[in-house]
Amino acid sequence: MSILDRLQAAQTKAEVLVQALPWIREFAGQTVVIKYGGNAMVNDELKQAFVHDVMFFHHVGLRPVIVHGGGPQINSMLGRLGIESEFRGGLRVTSPEAMDIVRMVLTGQVQRELVSLINRDAPYAVGMSGEDAGLLTATKRTTTIEGEEIDLGQVGDIHHVNPAGILELLDAGRIPVVSTIATDVEGDGILNVNADTAAAAIAGALGASKLLMLTDVEGLYLDWPNKDSLAPTVSAEQVRELLPSLDAGMKPKMEAALYAIDAGVEAAHIIDGRMAHSMLLEIFTDAGVGTLVTKDNE
Ligand SMILES: Nc1ncnc2c1ncn2[C@@H]1O[C@H](COP(=O)(O)OP(=O)(O)O)[C@@H](O)[C@H]1O
Ligand SMILES: CC(=O)N[C@@H](CCC(=O)OP(=O)(O)O)C(=O)O
Fold first, then answer.
1. Fewer beta carbons under 10 A from the terminal one: N or C of the chain?
2. What percent of the chain is predicted at pLDDT more than 70?
3. Domains in the chain, please, with CATH?
4. Span from the CA of 220 to the centroid of ligand 1 (angstroms)
């Protein structure tokens, strides 16, 4: 590479840094909840890119909180153990036997892996389950399909979020990594909570400014699966209209986006986790990848 080429490449990097400046200034000190879906944890390079983005957020003064999923990882373990599992309305029907595996995979495998990956860079990450310090309590929920109420077993909807434990970690300069197992407020057991739902409730309780949801699709398609229908921005009102027609995977995500916005979170973003550094591009550049869900009046 000639000196001129090297100077031009350096100039481009400087421009990118300068472009990030207003966003860094705007978001410094704000809490951002990142929902890291199991389908976005595709390979080691992408996981490493995710960790670098989280570290970038942390070092420019944002307060990132990671709420992770792990649906595919749970499926794989259930399959290895020969335990049947099915999804109804985007939620896993969770028998007591499956519940043990869900807890084991989320808190013992996926969360540990993320915590270790971050801490290999710098020792900031601390894992938490929704069971820890009363973080998540839930009540048993069902789902309705074609007018019929379906029993989902040990599946919960958030009853209450006690964010004290997360706030203590954030104030100590840590990066909380949360698994979405909740204490059953009506019984003496635990409940399996969809990670999108939990992330939205946590974002609301923390007064987060953003909820970022990393998944395995470019964003919300208004006319799924028509690839020309990707929406760069949608209002909460539009999402409310779309909700009944949405397919399984996107439904809990859009319900979560609405919940977060109704709880005061300024924006929810659906971001393609299969693209390296998509979070940085969405937050700190003018490029705007993914779908931004905003309040009705914006
Ligand atoms: N309107 C839509 N726009 C985008 N994706 C959709 C839509 N409807 C359904 N989907 C599906 O939702 C999936 C994402 O949800 P899910 O598989 O639950 O991801 P995650 O594990 O990241 O939570 C996409 O891969 C896609 O197949
Ligand atoms: C009730 C319910 O469906 N819980 C989910 C929890 C994990 C999750 O939500 O993982 P993703 O974000 O990767 O989909 C499950 O058991 O798969």
1. N
2. 99
3. 26-294 (3.40.1160.10)
4. 8
